[in-house]
Queue: 4 jobs
Job 1
Amino acid sequence: MAKPVLKIVNLELNRPTVPTALSLLEDALRTARSERYVAVKLIHGYGSSGVGGDIRIAVQKTLAQKLAAKEVRAFIPGEDWRISNEFSWDLLKRCPELKQDSDLGRANRGITIVVL
């Protein structure tokens, strides 16, 4: 059986508070790891309404801490999720099926890709 590649998790569903979204992030990473996913696409929004963006900022800060602690291999902000980005290209070489992701190359600041 093929290893699952990309789990998609919507952290902005039902407009949670930042602490709730971070709790959802922890649960999503733990579940994805146990289900042996290679990566997780987090949908967190970016505050395009003129307010918000707090979840995006908190998620990426948390992921930077997890990267430093070696709890994740990498994370790629949506604006960097493109073939010309070194980390994106490394992931795409390992998992070519990710080239089908609808956000690849769209500079979508409302998502982040996490490599487990």
Job 2
Amino acid sequence: MTSASGKQRKGHRLAPHTADCVVEAWAPELVPCLAEAMAGLVAVFAEPVEPATTRTVPVSAGPGPGSDLLVSLLEEVIYVTDVLGVVPVRFHLAETEDGGVAGDMEVVEAGDAVLVGPVPKVLSYNSLELSEHDGTWRCRVVVDV
């Protein structure tokens, strides 16, 4: 999504980091920022696909601080890929009344996705960042690939 000034309102990008990868995400609100971070994590190991068939897998985190929500949601992406053999392609999240996040991930079978790298196993808690500044939420996490 791009604003009238041309500045991207939400999105994610990957950046190299030694033997790891950095996922950065941003959005005007916390929950969309978390969803962008999840999409960024998937981009580390799979290219976007327009699947003919998806199924949904529930996902939730919290309640807790934003950084705990971020880690929990990213760990869910790793879990469903590693254990269930699926690749998330879309995320639908909403804030819960108790301060958590809940929703679902649309997933495809791993064999139906374009895999471009190994599935991450570990997130670095040392370099984890999540903050809001001037109406934009931003997060950054180092992923061990």
Job 3
Amino acid sequence: MSKLHSALLFSALGTFAATAIFSPYALAQEGGAAPVALTIYNQNFAVARTTVDLDLKAGANKVTTTNVTSQLEPDSVVLRDPSGKVAFKVTEQNYDAGVIDQNSLLEKFEGKTIQFSRGTGPDGKPITVDGKIIRAGVNMQPMIESEGLIQFNLPGIPLFPAATDGLLLKPTLRWQIDAPRAAHLAAELAYITNGMSWQATYNVVAPESKDVTGPEHVDLFGWVTMQNNSGTDFPEARIKLMAGDVAKIQDMRARGQMNGMAMAMDAVSAYAAPPPVTQQAFDDFHLYDLNRTVSLMSGETKQVEFIEANQVEMDRVYQYDGGTLQPGYSLCPTCHNDQPSFGATSNTKVNVRAEIKNSAANHLGMPLPAGRIRLYRRDAGGQMEFIGEGTISHTPAEETVKVPVGSAFDVTGERKQTDFHADQRAHTIDESYEITVKNQKTTAVDVVVAEHMIRAMNWQITEQSTKFNKRDSTTLEFPVTVPAAGETKVTYTVHYTW
């Protein structure tokens, strides 16, 4: 950023009390908010870029803008001439996010008497009572003197004088700027703000099928959900979304400001097809552009569809992992376990997951940002029923999306230890298992039987009924086909040494 005319790096202000907008400062963008470009990140922050109309005279200038959020990071602000023609210099910056509210007004009127509303009487006329604000009660109970008595709560809704002189109604940035000559320019203002986030969600709709035995074709819809809890409206915004784990120091103060924020759902217009969302690799991340101007108001949740794919091939994978590993168990290089019951547990659940190849050949191929994915299937009447959900991490093109569906109802497993022998002098253990997978469906199913070699670091399969694949240093996978209304057995013997 050596070419920037002004890179403002100031320490964050310690307090944000409500202050006046000083009259010596010229108010920039007084006629209305300029369009804003937003790049929203997964980690509850965004980069905002807008313009500030500067009318500078030679020498010292004082400029104010309210086109900022209440969660702006003051030391992230950059103000510059994008054309590089005006070499102005920012000598001082002040930021005030202390927008006036009821508590700050109570504090401002401490020691004074105001009216409190108690609703309306039987005659429809308003009922008010005078109360002297002895203590505003910002961090403790308020203390009000009313009708000769002191009470520790407000006697009604406080009514303040209508004048707003000296009150800050919007978050405000004030600069002192030195200019070598008079100039009029649209300066670029960029800053980081907290309180904005986005996430991806995916819906997969599968057709009606009584028994799914192989690949099937589904429809996939991807949405981005944006949340604006920054405290500022963006009536016109060009929005990009950054996907990836960008290094960012978390602001604990801003995180606390998120609590209690309201959210409202904005319906997506369906009468005209919007421009498609595009993506590009950006540094070590991916940048998604909505390619249109949208409104994103404070407290609003907005959804935009960014991917729609039909005839996507989806595979269904059944896996039986009958052994139950002890939580937190890890095997050291010189360790072993010669207890016969160790690892001999069994469960009956056969897990089901859906797998989708994220490739152009499969009508996809766009890098998919992390998010939640839901699976639906149409029943015989065409109605969609929910059948499972999971989360996916950032998935590049040509990788496979794996979604847990749940446990199969008609496919179950059983696992039992059939032989065990340990020789402490020879440092050997021999162990045998029999795994049975049962299928009550009307069609055959393919099941992957997973087994874990966890008694010792060195092991060798000495007998087996079925070929296996070695998934990692301690896990074997036996692929088997279980006939309709039938069962299939897998047996093996493992020899451990240490």
Job 4
Amino acid sequence: MKKKCQVCSKEFIGRSDKKYCSLECKNQLNNRLRSTQIDIIAQIDTILHRNHHIMTVLLGEGQVKKIEIQKLILLRAGFDFTHFTGTYLNNQNKLYHYIYDFAWMEFSDQKVLIVKKSK
């Protein structure tokens, strides 16, 4: 039974479930699909690292473990509130958003609490 390759449209003969005429065509399609995913992941990772860097700069390398700051300052620094690595709802129903070893919580439309997790 002749079939057409899903990548190059070349006709080939093979098993009933075979989709590609060669290993090269199969790899070409998979690489194309993977490169799209890698681009998206890289974009998100860049945002997360920028957010992490902003919080590191604000808290500094010292002993400061938390800081209350104006949301506008974070926005001007390029902070993206839509990307984070996890969430935590404490027993007082306050929602913390994690970015690696930092967490932030919005008090109101104007203020944000940033906390560095201890090791």
